[in-house]
């Protein structure tokens, strides 16, 4: 798919400053968001988690800290390579396995993960329903999906947030990285499903007990759902 190839090359290009800009542009909130995601994905026992769109593995690291065994999947080899290096540098024997693959076609058998997480990745999969169905396939019965994704706040914060996202973020990015990638960030957030549409999508893909948890003035949502245990 041409679109997926373009996204892959964009992430390959911005990898060098990706983490730095994440922390800067989110005012350090990104650590808190991923920690919350990990708390919902891993709750006791041995948990084998597929972290889809794992990127430079900050999301995988949050899961490892909770004691999970993590398989990190991404289409960008450069992002994965950086992530894998970071993890192995901190903890040589961390249970982290990096796999280059697309979310549309996961190279795993049915029902082999206790949970699948996806932090800020699902928005890049434009055939979102196919990607969610593929996630459903690899989750064990009774297992969880945990998605972290940006959203545009309503009400008072909407205008200042849009100004920040569409003007200030691309400007800061032009100083440190590739401006167009961060313009894409803004337009992809605006064009993506609204929280209630994501809930509907998860329901349509057979997930149950779905919760949408707003974080940081509703600029980020955590979506949690369960695969039927029967
Ligand atoms: C914004 S980054 C998120 C990385 C990481 N999860 C985090 O929390 O920082 C999005 C990642 O999604 C990956 N990605 C985009 N489309 C994908 C696809 N179809 N399959 C797998 N990964 C994909 C990109 O390569 C990129 O590393």
TrEMBL record:
Gene Ontology molecular functions: demethylmenaquinone methyltransferase activity
Choose any GO biological process term that the UniProt entry carries and state it. Answer: menaquinone biosynthetic process
Keywords attached to this Swiss-Prot or TrEMBL record, sorted alphabetically, are:
Menaquinone biosynthesis, Methyltransferase, S-adenosyl-L-methionine, Transferase, Ubiquinone
Recorded catalytic reaction(s): these are: a 2-demethylmenaquinol + S-adenosyl-L-methionine = a menaquinol + S-adenosyl-L-homocysteine + H(+)
UniProt-listed Pfam families: Ubie_methyltran
In this chain, S-adenosyl-L-methionine is annotated as bound at 56, 74
Say yes or no: keyword Membrane present.
no
Task: Quote the pathway field.
Answer: Quinol/quinone metabolism; menaquinone biosynthesis; menaquinol from 1,4-dihydroxy-2-naphthoate: step 2/2
So what family is this one in? Answer: Belongs to the class I-like SAM-binding methyltransferase superfamily. MenG/UbiE family.
Q: What does this protein do?
A: Methyltransferase required for the conversion of demethylmenaquinol (DMKH2) to menaquinol (MKH2).
Q: What is this protein called?
A: Demethylmenaquinone methyltransferase
Q: Which species does the entry assign this protein to?
A: Thermodesulfovibrio autotrophicus
Q: Print the organism lineage.
A: Bacteria, Pseudomonadati, Nitrospirota, Thermodesulfovibrionia, Thermodesulfovibrionales
Per the record, the gene is menG
């Amino acid at each position: 798919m041409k679109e997926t190839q373009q996204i892959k090359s964009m992430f390959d290009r911005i990898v060098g400053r990706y983490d730095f800009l994440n922390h800067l542009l989110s005012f350090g909130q990104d650590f808190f968001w991923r920690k919350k995601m990990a708390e919902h994905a891993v709750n006791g026992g041995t948990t084998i988690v597929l972290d889809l769109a794992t990127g430079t593995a900050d999301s995988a690291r949050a899961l490892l800290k909770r004691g999970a065994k993590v398989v990190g999947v991404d289409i960008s080899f450069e992002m994965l390579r950086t992530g894998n290096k970071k993890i192995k540098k901190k903890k040589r024997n961390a249970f982290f396995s990096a796999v280059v693959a697309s979310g549309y076609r996961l190279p795993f058998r049915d029902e082999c993960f206790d949970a699948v997480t996806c932090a800020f990745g699902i928005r890049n999969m434009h055939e979102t329903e196919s990607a969610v169905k593929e996630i459903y396939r690899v989750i064990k019965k009774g297992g969880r999906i945990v998605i972290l994704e940006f959203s545009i706040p309503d009400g008072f914060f909407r205008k200042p947030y849009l100004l920040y996202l569409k003007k200030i973020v691309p400007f800061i990015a032009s100083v440190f990285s590739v401006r167009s990638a961060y313009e894409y960030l803004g337009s992809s957030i605006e064009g993506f499903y609204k929280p209630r549409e994501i809930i509907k999508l998860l329901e349509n893909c057979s997930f149950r007990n779905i919760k949408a948890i707003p974080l940081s003035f509703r600029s980020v949502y955590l979506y949690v759902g369960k695969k039927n245990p029967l």
